[in-house]
């Protein structure tokens, strides 16, 4: 399948007092046509920054795209001017944000907010745009679209607002939809509804989706492929099944182990990953996870592990999986690093 | 909405009553009388005059008579301005104050908003610093300094404008600048700080993600959300500016209301003091009411209602 988005060696930094936070470090991945890819990782792992960089929504300064290319349909987004980029945003890439309570303009009717993108990109007439908005509202499952179209966001519940956000993002039928933690701010039953809606819509529109989340349950629900980020780097990628049944990176394993299970005894404590992520003003010389890793070796402290292929679809950045370590056995690996 | 206005109206009447009472008592507590003058008048004439104006009666009776007349719409006759009715004095002079006031309100809001928006859009860049320096200057130099400087430079040296008076449209330029400098500066700072906050909010990011251009985002999404504090300020500004600025009127020789207010107090012209005070109060209250109503127009989340249901 053709890839619709191709991110190559993307690095993004933010200037802060006393240095530079290297939020995204050398990230490469691609998204195929009609595919749903999840980017998971804890807060500060760089997943949102990656998404906002694709849209060129990070503020520069303080943000800075240090290097890297992002190809959308063969066009490098990082080299476009702001004007050209405006034609991409909302038109070829739609975006859904985390908090639907604050993501809509409180002083503008919902209909107008959905319409804006349509008028901007497809230069529809007022009546045509209105028709399309009604269609979109029905599509995202908002009852009584004729009355709802003229209402303001405060007259909508959180879940309904997120549906409106989805309608805004999908208004111009973009090739790619970026959802930045779309369910984090919603309660659990509404989360399920929104996810079902997104799944349905993806089947209908064949849009590719990048879903940013820290909720592995959501990932299992709607994604085909998973990218695990840690400390600004991609530590592991693979299909959903590979990641859940055969995780290779100690961080991925830790994440999965820390999830509560239905068959778990009530008083059994959850297993956390101890420690905290490294300070990205001074990122560690070696593997970012090294200080929290149970099986860290000496080489992990000094060298950033290379991307190692496990299968056609799965790859991992960990010295334990490096061919050299495999060849020598893990004991030999430790010696070799010394 | 109608219930809200009616309720507000009742409150306005009540506060007006307290205001009238307090002013009446305070005015009479101040030593001196409108009938005192440098000219020696015989005791009989003095007595006749007092009887004519009703000043010989006890205070409580005078108060009753004043209230009775007021309810009938009679503000009385000036004691100093040769039998001129108070409402006519107010009417004649308010014309000028109102015209100048409206012109400078519009100027303040338009110029203030533009400066504020520019500052917010170019936050921490040259244009921002430039207009904020202008704002600080506008706020810190009092109008009684700005006005004569403008007169000297633009009217005396260059002779582009008249020094004083309000006869042609061009005559409004100098007093308007002097009168609105401070409020321009205030509004600019107000808009700037709110808009910087608004521009960082999530829905602006949404607007950007739709592919809107920067100026459209500011115009359609940020401006309306930054207007609320300005509306609040506008309520006060309206009352302040419309009722005339004593200083500006004095400097530009404008026969406005402010001048009469000051004169009436130093002359102890009781009916005029009362009349202008009541007039000011009514204008202030109406402006506040208008500002309240304007909130609803600016922000759909604000609902006005008379009962407890109001948010």
UniProtKB/TrEMBL annotation, chain A:
ATP-binding is among the record's keywords: yes
Record domain ABC transporter: where: 7-256
Membrane topology: Peripheral membrane protein
UniProt-listed GO biological process terms: peptide transport
GO MF term list: ATP binding; ATP hydrolysis activity
Predominant subcellular localization, coarse grouping: membrane
CDD domains: ABC_NikE_OppD_transporters
One Pfam family cited in the UniProt record for this chain: ABC_tran
Keywords for the protein's UniProt record, in alphabetical order: ATP-binding, Cell membrane, Membrane, Nucleotide-binding, Transport
Localization of this protein: Cell membrane
GO cellular component term, pick one: plasma membrane
Record carries keyword Magnesium: no
Entries under InterPro entries matching the protein: AAA+_ATPase, ABC_Ni/Peptide_Import, ABC_transporter-like_ATP-bd, ABC_transporter-like_CS, Oligopep_ABC_C, P-loop_NTPase
PANTHER family from the UniProt entry: DIPEPTIDE TRANSPORT ATP-BINDING PROTEIN DPPD, OLIGOPEPTIDE TRANSPORT ATP-BINDING PROTEIN APPD
Annotated family: Belongs to the ABC transporter superfamily.
Protein name per the record: ABC transporter ATP-binding protein
Native source species: Cohnella luojiensis
From TrEMBL, chain B:
Cellular localization per UniProt: Cell membrane
Protein source organism: Cohnella luojiensis
GO BP terms: transmembrane transport
Transmembrane segments: 100-118, 130-152, 172-191, 230-252, 272-298
Classification via InterPro entries: BPD_transp_1_N, MetI-like, MetI-like_sf
Organism classification: Bacteria, Bacillati, Bacillota, Bacilli, Bacillales
The entry's keywords: Cell membrane, Membrane, Transmembrane, Transmembrane helix, Transport
Cellular component annotations (GO), alphabetically ordered: plasma membrane
Domain of life of the native organism: Bacteria
Membrane topology: Multi-pass membrane protein
Primary location group: membrane
Pfam family, one: BPD_transp_1_N
The family this protein is said to belong to: Belongs to the binding-protein-dependent transport system permease family.
Annotated ranges, domain ABC transmembrane type-1: 94-291
Protein name in UniProt: ABC transporter permease
SUPFAM superfamilies, per database record: MetI-like (SSF161098)
Membrane as UniProt keyword: yes
UniProt keyword annotation of Plastid present: no
């Amino acid at each position: 399948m053709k890839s619709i988005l191709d991110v190559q060696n993307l690095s993004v930094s933010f200037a802060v007092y006393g240095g530079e936070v290297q939020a995204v470090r050398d990230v490469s991945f691609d998204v195929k046509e009609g595919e749903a890819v999840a980017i998971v990782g804890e807060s500060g792992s760089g997943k949102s920054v990656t998404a906002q960089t694709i849209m060129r929504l990070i503020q520069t300064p303080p943000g800075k795209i240090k290097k890297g290319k992002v190809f959308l349909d063969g066009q490098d987004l990082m080299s476009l001017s702001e004007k050209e980029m405006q034609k991409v945003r909302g038109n070829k890439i739609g975006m859904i944000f985390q908090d639907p309570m604050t993501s809509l303009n409180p002083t503008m009717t919902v209909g107008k907010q959905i319409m804006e993108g349509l008028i901007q990109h497809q230069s529809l007439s007022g009546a045509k745009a209105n028709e399309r908005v009604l269609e979109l509202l029905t599509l995202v499952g908002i009852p009584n679209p004729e009355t709802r179209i003229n209402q303001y966001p405060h007259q909508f519940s959180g879940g309904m607002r997120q549906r409106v956000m989805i309608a805004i993002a999908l208004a111009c039928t973009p090739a790619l939809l970026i959802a930045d933690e779309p369910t984090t701010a919603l309660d659990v039953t509404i989360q399920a509804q929104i996810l079902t809606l997104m799944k349905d819509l993806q089947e209908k529109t064949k849009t590719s989706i990048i879903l940013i989340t820290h909720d592995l349950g959501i990932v299992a629900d709607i994604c085909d492929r998973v990218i695990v980020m840690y400390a600004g780097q991609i530590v592991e990628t693979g299909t959903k099944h590979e990641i859940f049944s055969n995780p290779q990176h100690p961080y991925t394993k830790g994440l999965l182990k820390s999830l509560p299970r239905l068959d778990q005894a009530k008083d059994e404590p959850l297993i956390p990953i101890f420690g905290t992520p490294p300070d990205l003003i001074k990122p560690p010389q070696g593997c970012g996870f090294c200080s929290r890793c149970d099986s860290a070796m000496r080489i992990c402290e000094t060298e950033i592990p290379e991307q190692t292929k496990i299968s056609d679809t799965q790859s991992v950045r960990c010295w334990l999986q490096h061919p050299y370590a495999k060849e020598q056995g893990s004991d030999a690996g430790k010696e070799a690093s010394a | 909405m109608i219930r809200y206005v009616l309720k507000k109206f009742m409150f306005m009447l009540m506060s007006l009553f307290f205001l009238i009472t307090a002013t009446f008592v305070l005015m009479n507590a101040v030593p001196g009388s409108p009938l005192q003058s440098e000219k020696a008048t015989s005791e009989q004439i003095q007595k006749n005059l007092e009887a004519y104006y009703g000043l010989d009666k006890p205070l409580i009776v005078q108060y009753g008579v004043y209230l009775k007349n007021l309810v009938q719409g009679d503000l009385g006759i000036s004691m100093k301005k040769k039998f001129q009715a108070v409402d006519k004095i107010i009417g004649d002079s308010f014309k000028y104050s109102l015209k100048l006031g409206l012109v400078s309100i519009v100027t303040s809001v338009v110029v203030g908003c533009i400066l504020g928006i520019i500052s917010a859009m170019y936050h921490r860049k040259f244009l921002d610093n430039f207009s904020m320096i202008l704002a600080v200057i506008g706020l810190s130099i009092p109008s009684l300094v700005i006005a004569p400087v403008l007169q000297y430079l633009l009217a005396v040296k260059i002779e582009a404008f008249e020094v004083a008076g309000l006869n042609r449209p061009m005559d409004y330029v100098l007093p308007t600048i002097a009168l609105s400098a401070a409020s321009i500066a205030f509004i600019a700072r107000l808009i700037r700080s709110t808009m910087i906050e608004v521009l960082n909010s999530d829905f602006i990011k949404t607007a950007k993600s739709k592919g809107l251009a920067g100026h459209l985002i500011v115009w359609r999404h940020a401006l309306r959300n930054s207007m609320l504090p300005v509306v609040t300020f506008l309520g006060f500004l309206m009352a302040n500016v419309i009722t005339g600025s004593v200083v500006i009127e004095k400097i530009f020789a404008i026969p406005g209301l402010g001048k009469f207010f000051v004169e009436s107090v130093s002359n102890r012209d009781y009916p005029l003091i009362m009349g202008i005070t009541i007039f000011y109060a009514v204008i202030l209250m109406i402006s506040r009411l208008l500002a309240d109503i304007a909130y609803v127009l600016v922000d759909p989340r604000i609902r006005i209602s008379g009962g407890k249901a109001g948010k």
